[in-house]
């Protein structure tokens, strides 16, 4: 059992992290899905309706990736018998997430034209990462896409504490039951939310406010969106605690890819209308499990996703966080500007212009804020490691999370 001092120890900073081509492809896919989906909120070509109809699942892919990468960092230390170093973990998350987020938040609150639609929730909601609870799009729809960042931040806060508890208690077989229990809890909570908030509207026959209510009480709350994070953590646990099973599975990367595509195709049809009982209760976990298999395929050395490298997807993956933060206001501003010159918002030319503007804006934010913050983080950790009298062991190598 680790003492409190061991648990909160600071360990040497990571070595430069190896980029994994397969995960780069998936990060790029996730952010492109989100971008095309959000184009549906503005003027857009007709084809965006079809192509972007499944784009809402891009955040689910991000959740699975975060569960795998963050879970892997924490569980890898437990598996290796090393202390969790919670102080360093939270410090790394702070400088990874907050600087770019605060920069975009400053733009939203200081430049009225930056708001893509509606008004902003109170500032304290953003600063406490609780905006996703009770978010009403009728009145507070600006920067609404930060809801998923709230889910991630709450996960970053709680996951180390869960792992710490498991490390102290040292559960054995019963720990495996946590997985079906958590998935079952997600199903129950969405079922309960449906019966409590959605069913009465359907029974009234008016469907008045149905979409707003659904997003407020079903789509945005963290407790309804845990499936993707749990799926990712399960993959990390499989990698660290069942290496032989992991090795056997990852020998079949292309077969896993086909299985993932089949599962996601089924999810596409099941969730064609998201505001249905079956999509709400069963569609979410099917999407997340499908993306979980896709992540496994991307990590398989034998699979095409792992073997195929691309500078394009590597670039999009590198700027994906900054791009996610800033894309909606830039789409809005581009369309407003081009409308003054007579370009219709539903033209392909405006779509491509807005997409390019979003990419350039994401790149600029990455270079100006995100990347310097990461360099500062690594410099501080290296200095702290250099002064540590007893290094805790070799650093983890892995994809930047």
Overview of the molecule:
The chain is mainly alpha-helical and 401 residues long. The chain has one domain (24-169, 178-379). It is 68% helix and 0% strand. The chain has helices at residues 4-7, 21-39, 47-51, 58-79, 86-110, 123-127, 147-169, 178-204, 210-219, 226-241, 243-249, 253-270, 277-298, 304-307, 311-318, 320-339, 348-386. Helix 10 (226-241) runs parallel beside helix 13. It is globular.
List the helices and strands and how they pair.
Elements: H1 4-7, H2 21-39, H3 47-51, H4 58-79, H5 86-110, H6 123-127, H7 147-169, H8 178-204, H9 210-219, H10 226-241, H11 243-249, H12 253-270, H13 277-298, H14 304-307, H15 311-318, H16 320-339, H17 348-386
What best-fitting shape do the alpha-carbon axes yield?
globular
Rg over CA atoms: 21 Å
The major pleated sheet works out as:
none
Structural class: mainly alpha
Beta-strand fraction estimate = under 5%
Straight-line distance between termini: 28 Å
Weakly predicted, low-confidence segments: 1-16, 390-399
Q: How many extended strands?
A: 0
- Assembly state (oligomeric): single chain
What pattern of helices and strands is seen along the backbone? Answer: HHHHHHHHHHHHHHHHH
Q: How confident is the prediction overall: mean pLDDT?
A: 90
Number of domains: 1
Distinct helical segment count = 17
């Amino acid at each position: 059992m680790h003492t409190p001092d061991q648990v909160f120890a600071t360990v040497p900073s990571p070595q430069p992290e190896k980029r994994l081509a397969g995960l780069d492809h998936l990060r790029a896919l996730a952010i492109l899905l989100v971008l095309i989906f959000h184009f549906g909120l503005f003027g857009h070509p007709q084809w965006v309706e079809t192509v972007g109809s499944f784009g809402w699942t891009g955040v689910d892919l991000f959740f699975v990736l975060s569960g795998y990468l963050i879970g892997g960092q924490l569980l890898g230390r437990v598996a290796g018998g090393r202390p969790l170093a919670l102080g360093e973990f939270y410090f790394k998350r702070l400088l990874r997430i907050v600087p770019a987020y605060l920069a975009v938040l400053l733009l939203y609150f200081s430049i009225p034209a930056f708001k893509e639609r509606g008004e902003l929730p109170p500032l304290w909601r953003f600063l406490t990462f609780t905006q996703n609870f009770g978010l009403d799009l009728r009145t507070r729809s600006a920067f609404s896409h930060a809801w998923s960042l709230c889910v991630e931040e709450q996960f970053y806060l709680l996951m180390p504490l869960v792992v710490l508890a498991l490390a102290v208690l040292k559960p054995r077989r019963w720990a495996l039951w946590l997985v079906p229990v958590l998935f079952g809890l997600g199903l129950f909570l969405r079922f309960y939310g449906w019966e409590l908030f959605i069913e009465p509207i359907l029974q009234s026959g008016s469907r008045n406010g149905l979409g707003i209510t659904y997003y407020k009480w079903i789509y945005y709350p963290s407790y309804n969106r845990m499936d993707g994070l749990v799926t990712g953590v399960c993959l990390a646990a499989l990698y660290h605690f069942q290496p032989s099973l992991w090795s056997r599975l990852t020998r079949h990367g292309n077969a896993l890819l086909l299985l993932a595509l089949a599962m996601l195709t089924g999810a596409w049809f099941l969730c064609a209308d998201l505001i249905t009982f079956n999509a709400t209760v069963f569609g979410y976990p099917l999407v997340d499990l499908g993306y979980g298999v896709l992540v496994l395929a991307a990590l398989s050395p034998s699979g095409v996703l792992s073997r195929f490298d691309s500078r394009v997807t590597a670039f999009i993956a590198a700027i994906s966080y900054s791009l996610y933060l800033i894309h909606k206001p830039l789409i809005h501003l581009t369309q407003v500007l081009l409308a003054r010159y007579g370009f219709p918002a539903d033209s392909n030319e405006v779509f491509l212009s807005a997409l390019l503007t979003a990419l350039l804006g994401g790149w600029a934010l990455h270079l100006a804020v995100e990347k310097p913050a990461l360099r500062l983080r690594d410099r501080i950790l290296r200095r702290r490691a250099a002064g540590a009298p007893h290094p805790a062991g070799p650093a983890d190598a892995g994809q930047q999370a």
